[in-house]
Specification:
This protein is an alpha/beta fold. The chain has one domain: Alpha-Beta Complex (Spore Coat Polysaccharide Biosynthesis Protein SpsA, Chain A). The chain is 41% helix and 18% strand. It has 8 helices and 9 strands. The protein has a 7-stranded mixed beta sheet with strand order 3-2-1-4-7-5-8, sandwiched between helices. Helix 1 runs parallel beside helix 2 and helix 3 packs across helix 6. It is globular and about 50 Å long. It starts with a strand and ends in a 12-residue tail after the last helix. Bound molecules: guanosine-5'-triphosphate and magnesium ion (MG). The site of magnesium ion (MG) has 3 residues, from loops. Magnesium ion (MG) binds next to loops.
């Protein structure tokens, strides 16, 4: 079983199309799935889109009446996915703005079955690319990722900040058991929860692989919700809290 976590804040314009695309890709590949859509107090018609699609497709909707930010939204989505999952299951998280192509999911799912614990859809893997981002945003993203690579080096891992990843459900459950509230603790600091999950899983000895992602930022219709200053501050806190920490013993995905 595959759980897809979708964090949603004012994504009505492309949400239905994205969910239909996800369901087509997975039905064609014969993978059973459930989408966990976390609607974080959207003020547009995202809620209407979700009630429409959940009538026909396997979509569970979690609703925040008020906007709580990406950190809380990801905590809720991962908690729900982990709770419902069996050890052999897989959790995928992707943006709801339709900039990340769901046709990569079967390939990511297969790599988990081959033995990896985390598979990153990577802009920096050979064949990956970013289309439509400003030079400034590309530059800061590269710089932040190089800093993460130096701080938490893992062979074959280059993209620490892209949220589009597949996770072995058992390693997410183990991270919740080992770290508890601390698995995703840097909420309220912009998009820091995205590299934070990876850093915590690296500390558990996760086996990580990448597949190339062509990020289609040119397709984005919604406003970017990146809070740059909070995210920069978050990276500094993340690195200072975790750098040089010993690996936590135990089997990666068990
Ligand atoms: N729930 C919730 N989701 C958010 C919030 N901010 C962003 N998101 C969601 O998180 C995802 C990432 O936000 P985006 O606006 O796509 O960010 P971006 O500018 O594309 O930046 P990247 O994450 O680098 O792609 C999207 O699915 C958003 O709907 C928020 O305050 N609450
Ligand atoms: Mg996005």
């Amino acid at each position: 079983m595959l759980y897809i976590v979708l964090p949603i804040y004012n994504e009505a314009s492309r949400l239905e199309g994205l969910i239909v695309k996800i369901s087509k890709v997975l039905s064609t590949s014969g993978i059973s799935y459930r989408i966990i859509a976390v609607n974080d107090g959207s003020s547009d018609s995202s809620a209407d889109v979700l009630s429409k699609v959940s009538a026909d497709l396997p979509v569970t909707v979690i609703t925040h009446k008020m906007n709580r930010g990406l950190g809380e939204t990801i905590r809720d989505g991962f908690e729900a996915a982990a709770e419902g999952s069996a050890d052999g299951d897989v959790i995928v998280r992707l943006d709801a703005d339709d900039t990340q192509d769901p046709s990569l999911i079967p390939q990511m799912y297969k790599k988990i079955q081959e033995g990896y614990d985390v598979v990153v859809a990577s802009r920096y893997a050979s064949g990956g690319e970013e289309v439509g981002l400003t030079f400034k945003r590309k530059f800061f993203s590269r710089a932040a990722n190089l800093l993460m690579k130096v701080s938490f080096p893992v062979k074959g891992l280059w993209d620490y900040s892209c949220g589009y990843r597949a996770y072995r459900a058992s390693i997410v459950k183990r991270a919740i058991t080992v770290f508890g509230n601390g698995f995703i603790e840097l909420k309220g600091l912009g998009f820091t929860v995205t590299p934070e999950k990876l850093v915590k899983l690296i500390r558990l000895g996760a086996r990580v692989a990448e597949v190339p992602l062509v990020l289609r930022y040119d397709l984005k219709e919604s406003q970017s919700k990146m809070e740059s200053y909070a995210t920069i501050m978050g990276y500094v806190i993340l690195i200072s809290k975790n750098i040089g920490q010993k690996k936590i013993k135990g089997e990666g995905g068990s």
